[in-house]
User: Fold these one by one.
Assistant:
Number 1:
Amino acid sequence: MARGIDREHRRVVLAAMAGTTIEWYDFFVYAISAGLVFATQYFSALGKDALILSFATVGISFFFRPIGAIVAGHLGDRLGRRAMLIATLLLMGVSTVLIGLVPTTASIGVAAPILLVLLRIVQGLSAGGEWGGAALLAVEHAPADRRGLYGAFPQIGVPVGLLLANGALALAAAVTTPAQFLAWGWRIPFLLSFVLIIAGFVIRSRVAESPVFEEVRRTRGRSSLPLVPLLRHHGTLVVLGALLFAANNAVGYMTTGGYVQSYATKNLHLDRSAVLVAVMISAVAWLVSTLVGGHLADRLGRLTVYRIGFAVQLVWMVPFFALLDTANVGLLVLALVLFSVGLGFTYGPQAALYAEMYPTRVRYSGAALSYAIGAVLGGAFAPTIAEALQSSTGTVYSVCAYLAGMTLIGLVASFFVRDRKGVPLHDVEEKVPARSAESLDGQP
């Protein structure tokens, strides 16, 4: 599918993908380590509640994503997409390296978990602002009939980041003893982020600014405070976009948030390295299905592909948990791979859909805020909720019911957004009528 992208546009989409991959590698290394390491190294004083609190630190950062989205969205709509991409990348990378240097509770006491949480909050600020810029840079450079495919490239930064994060932790676990891994081996993937952010900085600094943004800056100027017109005229869209993403994000965070890894190793007693490799294989399947989802979104429409994805999530939900509970690594791989199809179809079209929902002068703010709020509603505490449900009920099928409910919310929300595939991005109306179903898509 990438063969149809010319050289100039290929450089843009690969830059967006590369930076997003590095961002999410950093983010997921923490989330996975929360399930494998942090409960014992930083929260062991809490006894049986240590793992739940460790997962909760994954979720705490999500509350700061909307703040990051507002700040980066404001600056991105005022100054441009490219500058924000570089700033958020550096912010994420530095905080990740510092997490790898935080001493354990045994060394410095209560200051250790406090430092860990503060750095995780910085990661949340960065993640809240990064995605919108990467997605818009790819989509605003794209031909009108290829926005779905182009927008899927920054999306695959998530499964590639998951692949790299699991791979780095699996390698660290393989070359160390269990005791060494808990003592210092887990720090290696965090410290490797230093090399990645240098590479990401070089790649993103060479990308041209979005042509759509440049045209608006030349002809119509920029909004002095993008958040105000966004919420005044497009608030309904922000909520609907958030609900669409929440349904995908809650399901995705079963692996990206570390719940499956933790459950498989601690409850099913599977080998840690084998589980991490299984998740890596599923990340490849997620990558492929995300690209296919973006490609199909250009043919079938954004929302049609979304609905297919949500249907797959619902149908596969019970078999997924049944296969997980067999404690068989091969069946775990099968469960995760098929689970990834629904995830890809509800993630691949997202960048194009969000870009076509908002006017250029508030597009970064709108896309970033929908994404950030959706992450709070969906993924923020999904691993924590899953762990609490499974612990209190004694069965993973309570987690199944929770995820099915989230999926249904996204499916319903998809019927309140109008598909605007191919609409000229610079022609999106600035104001939205107060009434009529059609006003939900931001166009009269």
Note: The two ends are 34 Å apart (CA to CA).
Number 2:
Amino acid sequence: MTTTRTRIAIVGGGPAGLLLALILHRAGIESVVLERKSREYVLSRIRAGVLEQGTADLLRTVGVGGRMDREGLVHDGFDIAWRGETLHLDVRGLTGGRTVMVYGQTEVTHDLYDALEEAGVPVVHEAEDVTPQDITGNAPFVTYRTAAGEQRLECDYIAGCDGFHGICRQTIPSASIETFERVYPFAWLGVLTRTPPIQDELIYANHSRGFALCSLRNPQLSRYYIQCDANDDVANWPDARFFDELQARLPPAVAGNLVRGASIEKSLAPLRSFVAEPMRYGRMFLAGDAAHIVPPTGAKGLNLAVSDIHYLSQALIAHYQDKDDGLLDTYSETALARVWKAERFSWWFTSMIHRFEEHGAFSQRIQEAEFDYLTDSVAAQTSLAENYVGLPY
């Protein structure tokens, strides 16, 4: 077995793990990132595309915002469609100038990879059987296997950034962690197509046939979603059927703008809300999807991971530079306070905009009242806008 040492062992090479490695490098703190898949696989994953104001600002601060600012699309607002009507939310005006940035998670990951490669920060791909060890002791380490054989990475701390199905959370004894979960009775069927978007800003649509979302990645790359049964199959949705259904759920004023095209990616995503707490066990810290999942309705998944990394990186920097462990000791409490607020918003937005067949007529009337209140109340619109652009760190 080959033994190496670093300060921070980061398990997971998605945007959370890569961002943590870059921030720590900028502060002179060494780390190693362990990723189970190849770099090509990581970069092929289609994920979120709406960045909160705070996420975009943090990427600029660590020096990976250049391409985002050149190619990303600043959005000042979005539309909510209901009963054939459309309500425009001016999030810039409602929040005192805050906006969101449309820039795909794949692009963020690509920018982080480039920055880490330039900086010489090691990212180990195709690391199999990654296992955190001696987490509650003073000398934690991670074992894993590569083509070169068995490896042992000794460290001061472990950052579990390995997603919902990763090993890090599973390593924590059940008596030391509590989980909270809500599984929704539907999924999102998503299609990516090389066509101009239906309009410049996003449209969230509620319809008797189910929810729909018109999003985009750039002026020639559109991302569309429709609500479907959680047990459905992508094979049941050829492109023609998908676009017919999408068009039927949109207001007539915008449905005619839909440009159809062959799908270049099609996937089914079940919806769930999930939180594990605490987000620390011994010398291991959880971040991102390893600790929490939100339904994609409010576009909070990647953004929550970034806020976790903000808190965790600041805590580790204070530990090494100032010999102060106060932020490490309160990391879980601090991160969870923001996590639960984002969970609440994502649950609320999901509940308001989707079709819940099993809830009956009363719940349908409540949904209608919710939309009517949102339409008539600047205060309600401001609350939605503040959460959409992202609560402060």
Note: The radius of gyration is 21 Å.
Number 3:
Amino acid sequence: MNTHWITTPVTADLVRGALDLERTAHGVLPHRLPARARAQCADPQLALAESQPSGVRLAFRTRATAVELDALPTKRVYVGAPPRPDGVYDLLVDGHLAGRASVPGGHTLTIDMTTGAAEHRPGQAGTLRFTDLPDRLKDVEIWLPHNETTELVALRTDAPVEPVPDRGRKVWLHHGSSISHGSDAASPTTTWPALAAALAGVELINLGLGGNALLDPFTARALRDTPADLISIKIGINLVNTDLMRLRAFTPAVHGFLDTIREGHPTAPLLVVSPLLCPIHEDTPGPSAPDFTALATGRLSFRAAGDAAEVAQGKLTLAVIRDELARIVRQRAADDPNVHHLDGRDLYGEADAAELPLPDELHPDAATHRRIGERFAKLAFTADGPFRV
């Protein structure tokens, strides 16, 4: 194909869903936490999660019929587990899915879950190519893989591009765990937050951070400082996963997290979502641990490693967290009419678990992401819901 390519620098006005763009030796690395927040926590799991661009997309207006994106992904390999599929890029034209592809190669991060060791091997960038786009002025979005760290090296088109103008859509800012991050969704536009945002016609900023919905003050400040019209936080499963705190610490930490958000968004609708059903941790505390019996057969799975007898001493379970979140929101609602509560079991409950069980005991699959997204849209973005749009 003899195409006259125009190379356009990847700048902040062409990127949505990221809170920071880091210039690297190769190009631009989108981050979902700002540099100040990243500097306050050296946890490698947090660094991995926030650099995976869930909800981040290139967005531009153009007459181009061909688009190329050079990208440098980081692939994850878990020792003893089946190979993970390449990350997926979704192409949207005027809001409709028009293409889907992956970039092979890239860096490789090999993780040994039995020891916690990780090894990084450098690799080469690859090229994503979409052709035969409609020959008219249109909005184009390239959604980056929700679960694959991605450096953007070069953007090329066969016609000039410009930023998409403000369409007046409300901005929904969401924070949660790996389930909000996207876990085992099929593609970046089919994570449950992306699906709900599309159904509601809002702009998504997804701060779902796999393993790191931990009531961290730096995350609260990031939420506080990010312009948004609608805010939701999903709290619970990661606090049990990590066995991070007891009930005595949990309650004031939730209040502090919400207080910080309210410093920047004093009247925005604020929805507190309790955990989805997760049978292994409903009444059994954490931590969560890899199920090495399953791993020996090539299947990645998890088990609850805590002792239910310790709940009396303040250990957290999902049932304990749900009750306390409901109480906290009731208490705060007396002075804050714009704070709301949603029981996560209304998104995924016992009947859903019987029909669509969690494949690894923690994370929903692609079909379940769709169900959760559709339900959230119906419960939150309706005339009598907390996010009336």
Note: Residues 214 and 244 are 8 Å apart (CA to CA).
